[in-house]
Every structure is written in C-alpha cells, then in structure tokens.
Amino acid sequence: MPDRATFLVLFFLGTTALKLLLQPSYRSTDFEVHRNWLAITYSLPIHKWYFNNTSEWTLDYPPFFAYFQWVLAQTGAALNWDPEMLRISAAPYASDPTVLFQRLSVAVTDVLLLVGILVWVQTIPAETGSPSRIGTLAMMTLASAGLLMVDHMHFQYNGMLLGILFLSMAALRKGWILAGAGLFASLLMFKHLFLSLAPVYFVYLLSSYCYIHPPPPGQEIKSRFRPVTFLLLASTVLAVFAAALGPLLLSPSSTPSLQLDQLGRRLFPFGRGLVHAYWAPNIWALYCLDDLGLAALSRRLHLPFLDRSRPSSAPTWTSGLVQVIEPEVLPPVSPALAAVLTLLSMVPALVLVWKRPTPRSFLLGLFQTGLSAFMLGYHVHEKAVLVPVMVGALLACSYNRSSYGRLFFWLSTIGYASLLPLFPPLSPDSLTAFLLIHLHALGSWFGLGKEGLLGGEGGREGAFSLLESLYLAGLECMLWTVAVIHPLFAQDRFPFGGCLVSSVYCSTGMVGVWAESYRLLWQEHQEGGGEGGEEGGKGIGGRAERTESTSGSRGGRRRKEE
Known about the structure:
60% of the residues lie in helices and 1% in strands. By secondary structure, the protein is mainly α. Among the domains are: 200-270, no CATH class; 271-305 and 317-337, no CATH class.
C-alpha cells in the first residue's frame, strides 16, 4: 500500500472527480451571495466594500475572506471568464461559465483541507495510524458527506476553512505554538463562526505555553507566568489582525472608526433572530417547539398565558422568516443571554484544558465547545454542525478509544441527516443528499467498527442498544418523511412540516450526544488527561468501551508543551 501522503493525495483526487460531477447540482442563495462578493471586491475600492447594499446579499464575512474573494475576482478577470459575473447588480446572475468558475473555486481551494489532513496524520503515531485507520479518516474528512452537500451542492467554502483549522491544530500538536496561534487568528479573519473555538485556544495556549507548570510532587518550584512567551504569542495574534484590518482601515478615503462600526454591524447582525428560517437541530429548536405547543394549548384551553395584544398577523416560528420573532408564551431569548449560556456551557471544557493542557484534552475541548456553541448559539445555521463533526473525526481516528468513535458516529449521522431539508424535495439533488447521508452512516459504522472504535452492546463491536436501534429507526423514518412523504401528502397544508420534523427529531439526538460529551470531559478529568493510559470507560448508553493501550500513563502530571 502507498505511504500515508501518497494515499491521501490519490484519495483527494478521486473525491475531486466526484465533486466535479456534482457541479450541475442545486445551488442555494449562498451562490449568489458569493457571486455578489466577487463583484463588490472587484468593482469597488476597499473602503466601500462593507457599505455597499445594492444587493440584499451584502458582504458580511471578515476581511481575509473579502481579500480571498478579491483574488478570485482578479483571477476571473485575468482569464476573461465572464465579465458579467463581476458586475454589481441587485438581480441574481448565474450563467453557465459563472457557475463553473465558482464551483471550481470551491474544489480547488479544498487543497487546503488536504494539506491540513496531511500535516495532521503526521502527528498520529504509527501504532495508532494504521493504513485502514488513515483510510477511515480520509473518508470522514476528505470525502465528508456533509462537505459534499454543503460546499459542492448547496455552495460554501467550508473545506478550505476547515483545512486552516486542521493546520492550526496540527501545528500545536507538533509544538509549533506561534504558527498554530497565527493560523487560528487568520481563520478568525476568514470566518467569525470559529470564534466559538477561541476560548479553548486561549486557555490552552495560556496554560501550556505561557506558564511553567508544577513539577512532580515533592519538588517546590511553583507555577510562574512567562511574560516573554505571552508577549510573543500576543504579538503574533495582533500582527495577523493588523494584516487583516490594516488595508481596510488605512485605505485612502477610509475613516477607521466608521469602518470598524460597519464591520461589526455586518459580522454580528443580531436582528436576524434566535433561529434561522429552518431551525438548526439544537436547544432552541426544542424551545421554539415548546412555545408553539404551549401557545396552541393556551388557545384551546383558554389559558391566560398568551399575549392577547399580539397581532394575529405577527410572524411565528414557522413563518420561514429571518427576523426577530417574539415567543407567544415563553420569555424571549436575547443575543446576550444566548452568549452567556454558551460560555457557561463551555466552562467544564475550559477547566479541563486549563488543568490538563495536553493535546488530547485540547482536541476534546475543541470538540465539546464547538458542539456547545452549536447547541446554544444565537441564530445558528444547521450547516454549522460541520465544525464539531469534522473535529470529531480527528478525535475519533487519533486515539484508540471507542467512546470517541461512537460519539463521532452519532453526531455525524444525526448532523448530516438534519441537512436534508436544505435541498428541494422530490428533486435529484434531494435524492443525492439522501444517498450521501446513508453512505456516510454505513461507511463510518463499517470503518470505525473495523478499527474497534465503536464499542458495542454486549461486547459486540458496532452493536446498538435497544434505545439506539429505536432512535436509528426513527431517524430513517424522519428521512423518508422529509424526502418523500411530506412533499407528496402534506406540503400544501403544512409547508414548514418537513423542516419541523427534521429539526425536532434531530435535536433530541443532538442533546444526547451533547450530554455524552460532558461525560467524556469528566472521564478525561478523572484519568488525568494524559496522552497515553487508555484505561477505558463507558461508551454511549453506559456500555463498557473497548480501548487499547498505546503507551504508559502519565497520570495526573501536567504536561508543558513548547
């Protein structure tokens, strides 16, 4: 078998061919969003980029992504690809050459995802990273069903951004601290969604790089802060932010204070409401359902919970609108409250990473905080599940722990299933997404099970408990309901019905996965957070998990990584 790098490159080329076959697929409004950004960055001076509102699809990503769009626009202009795609207009524009150009840009920039995986696998020991294990990792990342659906059908650039994240994470595992910090700072200047991971990065870098930790018991040297390393770290991050914001703030005719104010308004438009038009499968989907149910019950039983002054024409959670919607019974949730709840939900992970700043604790912390941000964040899109899923793929394949593999299986299976309503029902694209969801579930179950990374009921690898089997059966029914039954028999009467069924059912499973992530944090804390010592524990549902020891336990000693 070829070496790791050769195999991954060949695998990537094979998946690229599949991506090109998806080129004629359904395109969401995100396609026109990015097309308009090409036109804005090409046609206007930089100080006008964040102020232009000719189209409703205004530029609302950080500066590095805007510069990336400028590079793409300049490339298209140099190739004389389609001059019309670079003209600012309120009306959408999607000629065949424009579609091909933008589809190719996503496929080509996925090279960054490949590079991220190539560097990451170098950090996996040979005894853990068997050829079949690397193949499973490639399937779950380079050929991710979620990325195929969201990037290469729906249209986004998540593969490129996740590649930068993986490079940053791998750099830290290799001890390239400043490079890892700089890459993550760059990622924040590409897409602010990744701010949800910043607390773990901050705590890990502060604890592992900026402090000298206590030596083994019996020695009296105390922890002490290292100001020089802290200044190096801060300077690296600030230099990246300066590189991103400098051209925007210092351009001719630019007023820095106005630019920063406008940038903040574009990046954080809290007027879009608690949930998206299609609810992401998280806590707020269940909150909206509870509010709808209580409102209906109050009307039927004439209970005094409803706001009688509320106009009957006021939008509701099922109106499919992107705006602030007031609950009918439950108290409203403000952006500040959602932010506080999200930060509080991250505290266990941050405490673990502070006390045990090891690569494994850091990776588990990233996974857990990414998932917490998805579950409690304000106006979260369903596509944001890709971040914890892809981090979970690295977690599952980098350690011999069935609890990690099982956690990834459930999160990815439920998360990818929740993406089906993104595609027009009864269309070839919906069928393609339906197949990709099933292929992922079967492929990850087989690949992880072959590596002994799933555990199982009664000690049988990959076996499910009765409760898990019932949930999977329900998930299959949900997929058929969304893909076939609802559009055929209930679309006219209940237009939001398919989205509601998907969001609510997937939310219940996501809550279970989220709860399991806290149990794994506690288990990691109990074991001391060492990189070896795979002592075992319980899998999802309380089963004993299968683990393999790859090295001696380091116990509870805190590891200094430089």
